[in-house]
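Researcher: We're teaching a course module on how sequence relates to structure. For the next exercise, students receive a sequence and then see the predicted structure as C-alpha coordinates, so they can try to spot secondary structure elements on their own. Here is the exercise chain.
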Amino acid sequence: MKVAVLGATGLVGREMLKVMEQRNFAVDELIPLASERSAGKTLEFGGSQHTVYAVSDEYFKGVDVALFSAGGSISKRWAPVAAAAGAIVIDNSSAWRMDPAVPLVVPEVNPDDIKLNKGIIANPNCSTIQAVVTLYPLHVKFGLNYAAFSTYQSVSGTGREALLTLESGSRSILEGRVPSPQMVYPHPIAFDLLPHIGAFDSDGMTEEEWKMVRESQKIMHLPDLRVSCTTVRAPVFRGHGESIIARFDSPVTPEEARALLKDAPGVVVQDDPANSVYPRPRYCEGKDPVFVGRIRRDTGMENALAMWVVSDNLRKGAALNAVQIAELL
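Model: And here is the predicted structure for the students to work with:
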Protein backbone atom coordinates (compact mmCIF):
# COMPACT_ATOMS: atom_id res chain seq x y z
CA MET A 1 0.00 0.00 0.00
CA LYS A 2 1.41 3.34 -1.07
CA VAL A 3 0.01 6.14 1.08
CA ALA A 4 0.48 9.89 0.63
CA VAL A 5 -0.23 12.38 3.40
CA LEU A 6 -0.66 15.98 2.22
CA GLY A 7 -0.19 18.43 5.09
CA ALA A 8 2.03 15.90 6.85
CA THR A 9 3.78 18.50 9.02
CA GLY A 10 0.58 20.07 10.40
CA LEU A 11 -1.23 19.14 13.61
CA VAL A 12 -3.72 16.83 11.90
CA GLY A 13 -1.17 15.44 9.45
CA ARG A 14 1.14 14.40 12.27
CA GLU A 15 -1.82 12.93 14.13
CA MET A 16 -2.71 10.90 11.02
CA LEU A 17 0.77 9.39 11.01
CA LYS A 18 0.49 8.61 14.73
CA VAL A 19 -2.93 6.99 14.31
CA MET A 20 -1.75 4.86 11.37
CA GLU A 21 1.16 3.60 13.47
CA GLN A 22 -0.99 2.88 16.50
CA ARG A 23 -3.56 0.97 14.43
CA ASN A 24 -0.93 -0.90 12.39
CA PHE A 25 -2.34 0.46 9.15
CA ALA A 26 -0.72 -1.36 6.24
CA VAL A 27 1.65 1.24 4.83
CA ASP A 28 4.35 -0.20 2.57
CA GLU A 29 5.49 3.18 1.28
CA LEU A 30 4.78 6.58 2.83
CA ILE A 31 4.89 9.81 0.83
CA PRO A 32 4.78 12.85 3.19
CA LEU A 33 3.79 16.00 1.30
CA ALA A 34 3.54 19.64 2.34
CA SER A 35 4.20 23.15 1.09
CA GLU A 36 7.51 24.38 -0.31
CA ARG A 37 8.20 25.89 3.13
CA SER A 38 8.17 22.46 4.79
CA ALA A 39 9.96 20.56 2.02
CA GLY A 40 13.13 18.87 3.20
CA LYS A 41 11.97 18.34 6.77
CA THR A 42 11.95 14.80 8.08
CA LEU A 43 9.21 12.89 9.91
CA GLU A 44 9.50 9.62 11.79
CA PHE A 45 7.12 6.85 10.83
CA GLY A 46 7.40 3.11 11.25
CA GLY A 47 10.77 3.42 12.96
CA SER A 48 12.47 5.30 10.13
CA GLN A 49 12.86 8.88 8.94
CA HIS A 50 10.92 10.10 5.90
CA THR A 51 11.70 13.22 3.89
CA VAL A 52 8.85 15.65 3.31
CA TYR A 53 8.36 16.66 -0.33
CA ALA A 54 6.76 19.77 -1.78
CA VAL A 55 3.48 18.64 -3.30
CA SER A 56 3.54 18.08 -7.06
CA ASP A 57 1.94 15.78 -9.64
CA GLU A 58 4.76 13.25 -9.65
CA TYR A 59 4.29 12.20 -6.04
CA PHE A 60 0.75 10.88 -6.61
CA LYS A 61 1.82 8.31 -9.19
CA GLY A 62 1.07 4.84 -7.89
CA VAL A 63 -0.49 6.11 -4.67
CA ASP A 64 -3.41 3.99 -3.40
CA VAL A 65 -4.71 6.28 -0.64
CA ALA A 66 -4.03 9.98 -0.15
CA LEU A 67 -4.91 11.56 3.19
CA PHE A 68 -5.32 15.33 2.84
CA SER A 69 -5.24 17.90 5.64
CA ALA A 70 -3.91 21.06 4.08
CA GLY A 71 -6.86 23.45 3.75
CA GLY A 72 -9.69 23.91 1.28
CA SER A 73 -7.86 25.75 -1.49
CA ILE A 74 -5.02 23.22 -1.52
CA SER A 75 -7.51 20.37 -1.63
CA LYS A 76 -9.42 21.93 -4.52
CA ARG A 77 -6.14 22.13 -6.43
CA TRP A 78 -4.65 18.72 -5.66
CA ALA A 79 -7.47 16.28 -4.86
CA PRO A 80 -8.55 15.98 -8.53
CA VAL A 81 -4.90 15.50 -9.50
CA ALA A 82 -4.42 12.68 -7.00
CA ALA A 83 -7.73 11.06 -7.97
CA ALA A 84 -6.86 11.25 -11.66
CA ALA A 85 -3.57 9.47 -10.88
CA GLY A 86 -5.58 6.58 -9.39
CA ALA A 87 -5.52 7.41 -5.68
CA ILE A 88 -8.57 7.62 -3.45
CA VAL A 89 -8.39 10.92 -1.61
CA ILE A 90 -9.73 11.24 1.94
CA ASP A 91 -9.94 14.98 2.47
CA ASN A 92 -10.15 16.67 5.85
CA SER A 93 -10.98 20.18 4.56
CA SER A 94 -14.41 21.64 3.88
CA ALA A 95 -13.74 21.80 0.14
CA TRP A 96 -15.72 18.72 -0.93
CA ARG A 97 -18.10 18.01 1.97
CA MET A 98 -21.25 19.40 0.44
CA ASP A 99 -20.49 18.30 -3.13
CA PRO A 100 -23.38 15.94 -3.98
CA ALA A 101 -20.98 13.69 -5.90
CA VAL A 102 -18.64 13.26 -2.91
CA PRO A 103 -19.57 11.00 0.03
CA LEU A 104 -19.24 12.56 3.48
CA VAL A 105 -18.45 9.69 5.81
CA VAL A 106 -18.39 8.79 9.49
CA PRO A 107 -17.73 5.02 9.61
CA GLU A 108 -19.98 4.45 12.65
CA VAL A 109 -22.88 6.15 10.86
CA ASN A 110 -22.81 5.78 7.06
CA PRO A 111 -19.99 3.38 6.05
CA ASP A 112 -21.80 2.21 2.91
CA ASP A 113 -21.55 5.71 1.43
CA ILE A 114 -17.86 4.98 0.84
CA LYS A 115 -18.90 2.81 -2.11
CA LEU A 116 -20.27 5.90 -3.86
CA ASN A 117 -16.87 7.58 -4.15
CA LYS A 118 -15.46 8.65 -7.49
CA GLY A 119 -11.96 9.17 -6.19
CA ILE A 120 -12.64 11.64 -3.35
CA ILE A 121 -14.19 11.02 0.09
CA ALA A 122 -14.79 13.93 2.45
CA ASN A 123 -13.96 13.80 6.16
CA PRO A 124 -16.57 15.82 8.11
CA ASN A 125 -16.08 18.77 10.40
CA CYS A 126 -14.70 17.80 13.81
CA SER A 127 -17.72 19.03 15.77
CA THR A 128 -20.15 17.34 13.42
CA ILE A 129 -18.42 13.97 13.78
CA GLN A 130 -18.79 13.69 17.53
CA ALA A 131 -22.41 14.89 17.35
CA VAL A 132 -23.56 12.34 14.77
CA VAL A 133 -21.65 9.45 16.36
CA THR A 134 -23.74 10.12 19.47
CA LEU A 135 -27.08 10.94 17.85
CA TYR A 136 -27.26 8.33 15.09
CA PRO A 137 -27.82 5.24 17.30
CA LEU A 138 -30.58 7.15 19.08
CA HIS A 139 -32.07 8.18 15.74
CA VAL A 140 -32.20 4.58 14.49
CA LYS A 141 -34.44 3.57 17.39
CA PHE A 142 -36.37 6.72 18.25
CA GLY A 143 -36.35 8.88 15.08
CA LEU A 144 -34.44 12.14 15.39
CA ASN A 145 -36.34 15.20 14.16
CA TYR A 146 -34.55 18.15 15.81
CA ALA A 147 -31.12 18.86 17.30
CA ALA A 148 -29.63 21.94 18.94
CA PHE A 149 -25.85 22.24 19.30
CA SER A 150 -23.83 24.63 21.45
CA THR A 151 -20.11 23.96 21.07
CA TYR A 152 -17.04 24.72 23.19
CA GLN A 153 -14.27 24.17 20.66
CA SER A 154 -10.58 24.00 21.49
CA VAL A 155 -7.97 26.13 19.76
CA SER A 156 -6.20 23.11 18.25
CA GLY A 157 -9.00 23.10 15.70
CA THR A 158 -7.41 26.24 14.26
CA GLY A 159 -3.85 24.90 14.13
CA ARG A 160 -0.44 25.10 15.78
CA GLU A 161 -0.30 28.90 15.78
CA ALA A 162 -3.51 29.02 17.81
CA LEU A 163 -1.98 26.74 20.46
CA LEU A 164 0.97 29.09 20.78
CA THR A 165 -1.39 32.08 20.92
CA LEU A 166 -3.38 30.59 23.81
CA GLU A 167 -0.21 29.69 25.70
CA SER A 168 1.49 33.07 25.28
CA GLY A 169 -1.71 35.01 25.92
CA SER A 170 -2.40 33.09 29.13
CA ARG A 171 1.13 33.78 30.38
CA SER A 172 0.78 37.47 29.58
CA ILE A 173 -2.48 37.83 31.52
CA LEU A 174 -1.19 35.83 34.50
CA GLU A 175 1.88 38.06 34.60
CA GLY A 176 -0.23 41.22 34.49
CA ARG A 177 0.57 42.10 30.88
CA VAL A 178 -1.74 42.75 27.92
CA PRO A 179 -1.59 39.88 25.39
CA SER A 180 0.35 40.75 22.26
CA PRO A 181 -1.71 41.49 19.15
CA GLN A 182 -2.15 38.38 17.03
CA MET A 183 -3.96 37.47 13.84
CA VAL A 184 -5.27 34.00 14.68
CA TYR A 185 -8.54 35.26 16.22
CA PRO A 186 -10.19 38.69 16.20
CA HIS A 187 -9.64 38.93 19.98
CA PRO A 188 -7.23 37.29 22.44
CA ILE A 189 -8.57 33.82 23.30
CA ALA A 190 -6.91 33.44 26.71
CA PHE A 191 -9.49 33.40 29.54
CA ASP A 192 -12.26 34.28 27.09
CA LEU A 193 -14.92 32.77 24.83
CA LEU A 194 -15.34 33.79 21.19
CA PRO A 195 -18.70 32.95 19.54
CA HIS A 196 -17.02 33.39 16.17
CA ILE A 197 -15.75 30.42 14.14
CA GLY A 198 -15.60 31.31 10.47
CA ALA A 199 -17.15 34.26 8.67
CA PHE A 200 -20.63 35.57 9.50
CA ASP A 201 -23.33 35.63 6.82
CA SER A 202 -26.12 38.19 6.40
CA ASP A 203 -28.31 36.27 8.87
CA GLY A 204 -25.63 36.25 11.55
CA MET A 205 -24.74 32.54 11.14
CA THR A 206 -21.08 31.51 10.96
CA GLU A 207 -19.47 29.09 8.53
CA GLU A 208 -18.89 26.57 11.33
CA GLU A 209 -22.54 26.68 12.34
CA TRP A 210 -23.72 25.99 8.80
CA LYS A 211 -21.23 23.12 8.56
CA MET A 212 -22.82 21.42 11.53
CA VAL A 213 -26.34 21.97 10.17
CA ARG A 214 -25.72 20.76 6.63
CA GLU A 215 -23.20 18.02 7.37
CA SER A 216 -25.43 16.43 10.01
CA GLN A 217 -28.26 16.27 7.49
CA LYS A 218 -26.05 14.74 4.80
CA ILE A 219 -24.24 12.16 6.94
CA MET A 220 -27.38 10.82 8.62
CA HIS A 221 -29.42 11.01 5.39
CA LEU A 222 -31.91 13.34 7.08
CA PRO A 223 -32.36 16.27 4.66
CA ASP A 224 -35.35 17.57 6.63
CA LEU A 225 -33.67 17.43 10.05
CA ARG A 226 -34.12 20.72 11.88
CA VAL A 227 -30.87 21.93 13.47
CA SER A 228 -30.06 24.94 15.66
CA CYS A 229 -26.42 25.76 16.31
CA THR A 230 -24.07 28.16 18.08
CA THR A 231 -20.35 27.44 17.82
CA VAL A 232 -17.89 28.95 20.30
CA ARG A 233 -14.08 28.91 20.52
CA ALA A 234 -12.95 28.19 24.09
CA PRO A 235 -9.55 28.64 25.80
CA VAL A 236 -8.89 24.89 25.77
CA PHE A 237 -5.85 23.39 24.05
CA ARG A 238 -7.38 20.15 22.79
CA GLY A 239 -10.81 18.50 22.84
CA HIS A 240 -14.21 19.85 21.83
CA GLY A 241 -17.25 19.92 24.11
CA GLU A 242 -20.84 20.10 22.90
CA SER A 243 -24.12 20.66 24.66
CA ILE A 244 -26.75 18.81 22.61
CA ILE A 245 -30.53 18.84 22.83
CA ALA A 246 -32.20 16.21 20.66
CA ARG A 247 -35.90 15.66 20.03
CA PHE A 248 -37.30 12.38 18.74
CA ASP A 249 -40.48 11.06 17.15
CA SER A 250 -40.90 8.48 19.91
CA PRO A 251 -40.66 8.87 23.70
CA VAL A 252 -37.20 8.10 25.10
CA THR A 253 -35.95 8.01 28.67
CA PRO A 254 -32.41 8.82 29.83
CA GLU A 255 -32.09 5.20 30.99
CA GLU A 256 -32.94 3.90 27.51
CA ALA A 257 -30.48 6.33 25.92
CA ARG A 258 -27.66 5.31 28.27
CA ALA A 259 -28.24 1.62 27.62
CA LEU A 260 -28.30 2.15 23.86
CA LEU A 261 -25.20 4.37 23.80
CA LYS A 262 -23.19 1.96 25.98
CA ASP A 263 -23.42 -0.53 23.09
CA ALA A 264 -22.94 2.04 20.30
CA PRO A 265 -19.70 1.86 18.28
CA GLY A 266 -17.17 4.55 19.11
CA VAL A 267 -19.08 5.85 22.15
CA VAL A 268 -18.17 5.73 25.85
CA VAL A 269 -20.80 6.74 28.41
CA GLN A 270 -19.45 8.69 31.40
CA ASP A 271 -22.59 9.61 33.28
CA ASP A 272 -22.50 9.69 37.07
CA PRO A 273 -22.80 13.39 37.90
CA ALA A 274 -23.47 12.70 41.59
CA ASN A 275 -19.86 11.53 41.78
CA SER A 276 -18.56 14.23 39.40
CA VAL A 277 -18.21 11.76 36.52
CA TYR A 278 -18.86 13.35 33.13
CA PRO A 279 -16.81 13.94 29.95
CA ARG A 280 -14.00 16.51 30.05
CA PRO A 281 -11.63 17.67 27.29
CA ARG A 282 -8.53 17.08 29.42
CA TYR A 283 -9.57 13.48 29.99
CA CYS A 284 -10.39 12.77 26.35
CA GLU A 285 -7.07 14.08 24.99
CA GLY A 286 -5.30 11.38 22.98
CA LYS A 287 -8.25 8.98 23.23
CA ASP A 288 -10.31 7.64 20.34
CA PRO A 289 -13.95 7.47 21.54
CA VAL A 290 -16.68 10.05 21.70
CA PHE A 291 -17.59 10.49 25.38
CA VAL A 292 -21.16 11.31 26.42
CA GLY A 293 -22.67 12.17 29.79
CA ARG A 294 -25.16 14.42 31.61
CA ILE A 295 -27.91 12.51 29.76
CA ARG A 296 -31.22 13.83 31.06
CA ARG A 297 -34.72 14.81 30.02
CA ASP A 298 -34.94 18.15 28.29
CA THR A 299 -37.02 20.60 30.31
CA GLY A 300 -38.47 22.45 27.32
CA MET A 301 -39.74 19.80 24.88
CA GLU A 302 -41.50 16.44 24.86
CA ASN A 303 -39.60 13.37 23.62
CA ALA A 304 -36.32 15.25 24.02
CA LEU A 305 -33.01 14.65 25.77
CA ALA A 306 -30.16 16.94 26.78
CA MET A 307 -26.60 15.63 26.90
CA TRP A 308 -22.93 16.66 27.04
CA VAL A 309 -20.54 15.25 24.42
CA VAL A 310 -16.74 15.53 24.33
CA SER A 311 -14.10 14.17 21.95
CA ASP A 312 -10.49 14.78 20.93
CA ASN A 313 -10.92 16.92 17.83
CA LEU A 314 -7.54 15.95 16.39
CA ARG A 315 -8.30 12.22 16.66
CA LYS A 316 -11.93 11.20 16.10
CA GLY A 317 -12.65 14.72 14.89
CA ALA A 318 -10.03 14.48 12.14
CA ALA A 319 -7.15 11.99 11.89
CA LEU A 320 -8.80 8.88 13.31
CA ASN A 321 -11.98 9.26 11.25
CA ALA A 322 -9.87 9.61 8.08
CA VAL A 323 -7.81 6.51 8.89
CA GLN A 324 -10.98 4.54 9.71
CA ILE A 325 -12.29 5.45 6.25
CA ALA A 326 -9.01 4.22 4.75
CA GLU A 327 -9.33 0.96 6.70
CA LEU A 328 -12.82 0.41 5.29
CA LEU A 329 -11.51 1.04 1.78
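Model: If you want an answer key for the exercise: The first strand starts at residue 2 and ends at 6. The two ends are 12 Å apart (CA to CA).
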